[in-house]
Specification:
Layout (H helix, E strand, L loop, with lengths): L2 H6 L5 E4 L5 H8 L3 H7 L1 E5 L1 H9 L4 E7 L6 H12 L3 E5 L1 H8 L7 E6 L15 E6 L4 H14 L3 E5 L8 H7 L8 E4 L1 H10 L3 E5 L5 E2 L10 E5 L8 H5 L3 E4 L11 H12 L11
Parallel strand pairs: 1-4, 3-4, 6-7, 6-11, 7-8, 9-11, 9-12, 10-12
Antiparallel strand pairs: 2-5, 3-5
The structure holds S-adenosylmethionine (SAM).
Length: 284
Amino acid sequence: MSESRRELRAPGQVKEITSLTNPIIKDIRALAMKKFRDREHLFMAEGLKLVIDALDTGWTIRTLVYAKAGRGNKAVETAAARTVAAGGLVLEVSEKVLSAVTRRDNPQMVVGIFEQRYRALKDVRPAGGDVWVALDRVRDPGNLGTIIRTVDAVGANGVILIGDCTDPFSIETVRATMGSLFSVPLSRAAPQEFLGWRARFDGLVAGTHLKGSVDYRTVDYAQGPVVLLMGNEQQGLPEELAACCDRLVRIPQAGRADSLNLAVATGVMLYEIRRGMLPLENSA
Ligand code: SAM
């Protein structure tokens, strides 16, 4: 028996659960609700790869849940041993319980419950060639997850959520990040707090706006740190946020569409801002 397996089989370290009425399972299922996530400061990540990514990047695991079918799987047992070593709980559950926890018919074999993490805005201090994306009231979990994934892909530094945004720790957003959530620092701020922070930031704040007069390709983004400010899906940037930008840029469009999707516009902007920093040779 391997070291990790012996550790895992110690009495009391793996609980076997088959009932949906088990109180631990009820608490985990409640994480589908934002109110409960906010209260507990926890969230759920599905899939062995994501759980391993999270453990590797230092996120704190509280509970590891795996399907009975995962018993004997070396990677699952290693993740379980790491959970126990971190003081977390390991649950071996039936397929039925795992489906209920993930609200999926064909759930992943492993689910991790992790502590949420935000960086205080005062500790966000972009310098050098740093790029942060600031999102005004992003509402769609798919958009937010896609943006976090794109921020990770281009090597930008983090995301600031301004005002009433969709929850980055909802199951839909976490899924859409495809694991990038664990590598991209998140901060959040009320609009006034962001404006106060912005006043002390002396890099470039580039806002995107359908009425922007500047072609996004004509700005020199390489002179120092950049904050890219993106507007809400329905309303775009409100006046007070638009007014705090050094540049209001626009991405030209040719067809009949009124605007680009928020995540697409963010991707276009990030690739332009980071253009000189992304030689093909760096790709996997
Ligand atoms: N009806 C909204 C408006 O009037 O602004 C459309 C918002 S658009 C779906 C969401 C955000 O994506 C915008 O606030 C802006 O940040 C960005 N965006 C979308 N298309 C853009 C474009 N062509 N140029 C600049 N920004 C764009």
